[in-house]
Amino acid sequence: MQLKRDVSAELEWDSSINASQVGVAVKDGVVTLTGHLDSYAQKYAAERAVQRVAGVKGIAVEVDVKLDPGHRRSDSEIAVAAESAFKWHALIPADRIQVMVEKGWITLLGEVDWNYQRREAERAVRSLTGVVGVSNAIKLRAAATPANVSRLIHDALIRHADDQARHIELIVDDATVTLRGKVDSWAERAAASAAAWSAPGVTSVVNELTVQS
User: Which of 104, 127, 144, 166 has the largest CB neighbor count within 10 A?
Assistant: First the structure.
């Protein structure tokens, strides 16, 4: 009950979310969000808000996006807006990304060099008017993985002041990094994943970290 109250309070605290439209259920540390929101940006913000709450072990987002009439756009209008957003974003190689839109749902395709470019591409289209969802299918271009990539990732975790870094097991198989162990919060779990993605040559991260009680 306390975790449910904390999650509800965090949703209400975030002014970008209409918390009155979101239902919260909690069981064994797993939070389920239900309801309807006016935009995909709100849905994403609600998910991020839950991740900030201590004690959350997992999240299930069962929230639908129902656009207000004034926010509806045609698929072609959304595609043009997405391409324009890429062209004006300094961190996104616009010439390497293709956009497909079907009934307001954006699918991103293409190949980039770094995960941050893939992440920024998704971020650029997430808040566009008319978007109801985003699927990020952008791939990372294969590159040589340093022999000491495990040490590089571990050192990055230490630099980020992650108290659990010494308890995280790193398994490197070619360009795939698997994270195993326990962390204290969802935020630490996400931080560990981000550190692994930042390593040169990594094209896949399997996050098997669990949030301990």
Answer: 104
pLDDT above 90 (res 165):
no
* Global confidence as pTM: 0.80
What is the average pLDDT across 31-44?
95
Place of tokens 């990594």: 202
- 101: β partners: 106
CATH class held by domain 72-140: alpha beta
Find all residues with CB under 8 Å of 54, minimum gap 6, and list them.
Answer: 6, 185
The CA distance from 51 to 62, in Å, is 15
Q: Do domains 2-66 and 72-140 have the same CATH topology?
A: yes
CA angle (172, 97, 86) in 5-degree steps: 115
